[in-house]
Every structure is written in C-alpha cells, then in structure tokens.
C-alpha cells in the first residue's frame, strides 16, 4: 500500500490535481443539493416553473459539456477548458447572490452553471492527459484514487452546505461555493503542463471499441443505469418517510452510509490486485444493482435498507471509478469527449428519472419505483453483456 501511495504522489502534478478534484467535489456537493430549495423558497417558484428550471439546468450542462469536450480534444493543452468551466461556475454562483427573478435566474443557470457542469469531466480529462506519460497501471490507479477523493467530498459537502445555509443564508452558501471554484482554478493554474506524449501506436482500446461493435449499446446501458440509480435516489427518502414511517435523520444516515462505504471500495481497486477485466466488473455491478432494488422493494424496515447500502456502495464504486477509464479506453485519443460522454450518461439519466419515478410513484406507490429501477438495470446489464459477447466473437472471427 505504501509503495502504491508513493507511486501516485510521484505522478506529474498528482497532489495538485487531487486538491483540485476535492475542491470541485466540495463545490458541487455544498451547493447542488440546495439549488431546488433556493428556487422554491427564495425565488418563490411554483412546482411547474421549478421543474422547468431544473430541467434546463441539466440540459444546458449536458449540451455545453459535450461541446467543450469536443473542443478540448483539439487543443494541445486542456487547462483553458477547465479554467473556463470553473470560472463560469464561480461567476454563476456570484450572480445568484444578486437576483431572485425567474428569467435572470434561468439565464444564469443555463449559461454559467451549465458551463460549470463541464468542470467535472474536463478536470478528469486533464488529469488523464497529464498522467498519460506514467505507467498505464499507475495512471489508472491515479484516476481511480481521484474519483475516491471526489466521493470523499460528497461525504462532507451536503452537511457543510446545510451549516452554511442555516436560516436561509443562501448568499453565504453561494459565495463559499464561488470561492471553492476560484481555488480550483488556482490549483489548475499551479499545475505544470508536462511535455506531450504520443500514444498513437501503443493505445489498446477495449475490445468493444472495434469498428464492428456498436458503441450505442454501452452508452444506452449507462444511461439506463444512471436513470435507475437516480430514480432510486429520488424515491428512497419518500419511501422511508411515507411508507416505512421513518425520519429524515434515517434518510440522511442511509445516504451518508453509502457514501462512506464507497471510498474504501474504490481504493481497493488501487491497493489490491485485480483479477477481472473492467468490462466484467461493470457487468457484475449492474447485476448487483438489480439485486439492490429487489431488496428495497421487499425491505420491511431500516435494517434491510442499511444492509442494502453496501450493495449500492459496491455498484457506485465500480461504475464511478472504473466507468470513466472504461469510456476513455473505448475512445482512445479522445479523452475529453470520452470523459464528457461518461459524465453525461448520468446527467441524462437524472433528467429522465424525475418524470418516470414521479409518474410511477403517483400511479402505483413508491415501492413500485424500485421494481421499475430493477427492470431498467436488467436492461442495462443485458446491453452491456451483449456488447461484451459481441466483442469476443469479433476477436475470435
């Protein structure tokens, strides 16, 4: 373990990149959960305008991230794209301090926060490009560890955000978030740009990236995964409080427990030898997620829900830490586009989750949402498993 840590700390700019990822994680987790509450209580948005507001925020983030991802792959240095994204986010949160009007708020979230949504994929694309000169295994371990740092930020970020908001002190929350984004920009500026390393001859994409294999199967499977995970996250608090008659404190316990368990599981991919391929592990994770939703559907109380969080933590640890390198391997030479595509599968899933989960919950109850999530997850598993089998046949043929 010590030798692995020593190797990681010797990677180019790794300590600075780790701090930048931590700051971005804190920025998103401190303010993100409270934007809907801000829109409802401070801007006095009714449910429909609030829904439009949040949908446009998500859509703008997806579209702008895709555009910046394509542009970044054409640049010799990815720093400008990262600085653009975090600078736009900082500006957007500063502007949220000075207006409560609906139309200006729509413009702020669509232009500035939408651009800021690209900070996560662009920062990880920068990290991947800066680690390319290192040993391939060390590079993959570096990205996995950075992803665990991002998860660590989400363990403490929402609680910190709650303290900052206090008695509706949203300006304090937004100013703090803008400061965190500004600090991220300083870390990125501080990181030295290593000499360009060509990998055109040594790049070994995963089998599923061959010309005869449809990439859409993998992308669709991750969108379905993101949809089911988001639907479950939306339904779980209401399921605990309305169906099982639990408390909001118990909801917070479940969410915090899952986030806490993710970190050692992610780090195990760094410090322990891996015997299975990335593709096989993600296929296993999708199957495990289906089992998780069955447990939620059948759960008689909090004990089963708490045990189920271990399954969810394993799934998220695998899909979040290995999914990014998986997409980057599928699209060699296009790190920015690949990282953005991976991040956007989750964003698109979140956009779909609200409508689907709300519709089923209203028609059939909150428990039914978990069955739908299980079906979506099985479809995701089938598509990903099929892509792997097709790749194997292509190799043998």
From TrEMBL:
The chain crosses the membrane at residues 47-69, 81-99, 105-127, 148-166, 172-193, 214-239, 251-272, 281-299, 305-327, 339-360, 366-387. Keywords: Cell membrane, Membrane, Sugar transport, Transmembrane, Transmembrane helix, Transport. It comes from Deinococcus ruber. Its main location: membrane. It is a multi-pass membrane protein. The keyword Ion transport does not apply. Gene3D superfamilies: MFS general substrate transporter like domains. The lineage of its organism: Bacteria, Thermotogati, Deinococcota, Deinococci, Deinococcales. The keyword S-adenosyl-L-methionine does not apply. GO terms for cellular component: plasma membrane. This is Sugar efflux transporter. GO terms for molecular function: transmembrane transporter activity. Belongs to the major facilitator superfamily. Set transporter family. It is found in: Cell membrane. InterPro entries: MFS, MFS_dom, MFS_trans_sf. Residues 13-392 form the Major facilitator superfamily (MFS) profile domain.
């Amino acid at each position: 373990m010590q030798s692995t840590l020593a190797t990681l700390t010797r990677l180019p700019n790794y300590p600075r990149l780790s701090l930048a990822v931590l700051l971005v994680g804190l920025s998103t987790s401190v303010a993100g959960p409270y934007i809907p509450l801000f829109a409802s209580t401070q801007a006095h948005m009714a449910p429909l305008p609030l829904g439009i507001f949040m949908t446009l925020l998500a859509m703008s983030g997806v579209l702008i991230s895709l555009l910046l991802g394509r542009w970044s792959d054409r640049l010799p240095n990815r720093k400008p794209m990262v600085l653009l994204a975090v600078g736009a986010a900082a500006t957007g949160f500063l502007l949220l301090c000075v207006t409560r009007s609906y139309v200006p708020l729509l413009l702020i979230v669509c232009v500035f926060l939408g651009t800021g949504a690209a900070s996560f994929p662009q920062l990880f694309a920068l990290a991947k490009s800066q680690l390319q000169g290192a040993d391939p295994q060390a590079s993959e371990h570096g990205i996995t560890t950075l992803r665990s740092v991002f998860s660590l930020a989400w363990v403490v970020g929402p609680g910190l955000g709650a303290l900052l908001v206090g008695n509706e002190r949203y300006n304090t929350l937004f100013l703090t978030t803008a400061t965190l984004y500004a600090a991220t920009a300083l870390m990125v500026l501080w990181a030295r740009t290593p000499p360009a390393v060509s990998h055109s001859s040594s790049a070994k994409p995963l089998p599923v990236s061959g010309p005869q294999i449809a990439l859409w199967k993998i992308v669709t499977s991750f969108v379905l995964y993101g949809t089911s995970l988001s639907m479950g996250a939306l339904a779980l608090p209401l399921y605990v409080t309305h169906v099982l008659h639990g408390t909001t404190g118990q909801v917070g316990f479940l969410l915090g427990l899952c986030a806490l368990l993710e970190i050692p599981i992610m780090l195990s991919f760094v410090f322990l030898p891996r015997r299975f391929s990335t593709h096989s592990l993600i296929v296993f994770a999708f199957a495990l997620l289906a089992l998780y939703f069955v447990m939620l559907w059948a759960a008689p109380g909090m004990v089963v829900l708490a045990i189920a969080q271990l399954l969810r933590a394993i799934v998220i640890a695998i899909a979040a830490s290995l999914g990014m390198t998986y997409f980057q391997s599928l699209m060699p030479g296009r790190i920015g586009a690949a990282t953005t595509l991976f991040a956007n599968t989750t964003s698109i899933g979140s956009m779909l989750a609200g409508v689907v989960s709300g519709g089923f919950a209203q028609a059939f109850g909150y428990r039914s949402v978990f069955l739908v999530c299980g079906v979506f997850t099985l479809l995701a598993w089938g598509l990903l498993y099929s892509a792997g089998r097709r790749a194997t046949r292509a190799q043998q043929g």
